[in-house]
Amino acid sequence: MKKLILSLLLACCISAQGCHYLDMDPETGLDENQVFSTWDNFKAYFNNVYEGRTGQKSSGDNINIKLGYPLYIDFNDRRFTWNSLTDMCDAGRWLRAQQIKAGALGANVTEWTTTTSRRPISYSMFRIIRVANKCIENIGMVQNAKQIDKDDLIGQAHFVRAFAHFTLCRIFGGMPYIDKALEADDSWDMTRLSAWETYARCAEDLDRAYDYFVAAGKVRRDALPGSEGHLTSSDMAYPNGIAAKALKARCLVYAASELNNLHGQSDWQDAADACAEAIRLAQQYGYDLVPFTEWNSNFYGTKYTNEHIWAWNYGSSKINTTTWSAHFGYPASNYTNASGDCPTQNFVDRFETLDGDPLLTEADRAAAAAAGHYNEQDPYTNRDPRLDKTILHDGSVVAGCPAGINIHYDPATGTYPTSSLNNNARTFGIAWGSNDSKGYSNTGYYVNKLWNGALGTAAAHQHTDPLIRMAELYLNYAEAVNEAYGPNGSAGGLDLTAVEAVNKVRSRAGMPGVLDRFTGDAASMRERIRNERCVELAFEGHHYYYDIRRWKIAPQTMTQTLTGIYIEKTDVSAEYPRGRRYIRRAIPSNRQANWKNAMYYLPFPTEEANKMQNFVNNELW
Description:
By secondary structure, the chain is mainly alpha-helical.
């Protein structure tokens, strides 16, 4: 029997005690029969796609093979997140993010090569695809497994093969679809597909995955709401049948989007039908939007919610101030290895008034002010409740700082006052551009959505990556239906219009329905659907990074002047009701963005591209 080559011998992280047989070198004598004939070995081999290690080392660190989870990709290198590669936020620490978003990828392309321990996306996705293919091809070798268990694993294999191709495609563009395990001496002569074709192949794999999950009784992995075992299944982290249909719907939405669309409106119709099917199944199996009082539990504080269709829980041991909080919430003022995500005023303006008025443009804000719904000198009053839950701004009240966070400047003292966070003085505000080596904000904002508002041991909490949740399903459906049939159309026999789908998400947050003046035509409704998506899914899933690309609006959003809010303490008056003077200002010039069309995709790492004879690489930018 052929020995397993190195790419098959993936180290297993299931047990922390000692080494595992999958850590061993091929010369130990382990062969494929030993791996694939025994069920425990088979499962251990496959489960590395979720949280395994390749055994390859660089800079002293094993390269983790986690399945392209967005928060893991960000967390793996705290120097920047993919959010900070867009106009939605600025990286506090000046480093790679500002260079890349300005269109100067250059040497930073090594972030995606096979030789770095930081973000080996292409390397890991190819290994995951190979593991999935080996399992699909060898499932018949297992001698001691129940059929439902084999069906479950092969369902997962089809799912992760699709997810890995999806991950590669939205980062690098269309890919060859690898549906067999290539050996070291095989010729990689597959044709590079278009992005549309790649997403379509992913959708086919996900339909296969669903059929296997049905056979295995894993359409949902836990019990229905109200039943014993709800949200407590030991295998909640693994994808299920609903996740397969939901990811299929997402793939077809991507395929239909302007960047990838090949067949006009019919692509949107196919996407709308897929979204309707996913929603119908999700509702049938009891998934729902959690109440707004529990909205943040989708991200931290508990392992899983009934809104999670598929999610990955990171536990709490790593989630503390010097790592997670310093990156996403609490400013990294005392932690130089983390960058911090600092939302721009451009993005904060996407949060409407509580009356539903848009605020994205100067004309929007003037109209809202004329209606008595918005005051530029009291900007966080009468706003979408998700603003306070998502954005940390001057005056934000968090668990560890009930007096409110200070990000303003005090002319009387010539200082930026500190904030008492869990009885520790912490600095949140600085003069913009005065300290580029640490994660201070140069926009006047930080991210609140992923932080529990505490410092030190009080900051440790469960954190979950919501890979697919119900809110996204409704927004995907709204987008596809609006493009296919208009704001008041529906799809797939579902009694739900595009407007109603958006309003389900809005009403959960206490927002009114989309104003009537935006629901008369697809073009007007399109902007409200996109804005709703930006607000609801902010700072999760890398959605915004890919959305502005697939919508082909990045040339506009990435060339606008990026602004922040400078805040100065003053006396309370009719003009300044909060005792603050709010001034919109451009952030420093070395933090502005740029755009070139090559930035739609990253160049594929040369080492991997060279393996594929017919592969024409993306432009290096």
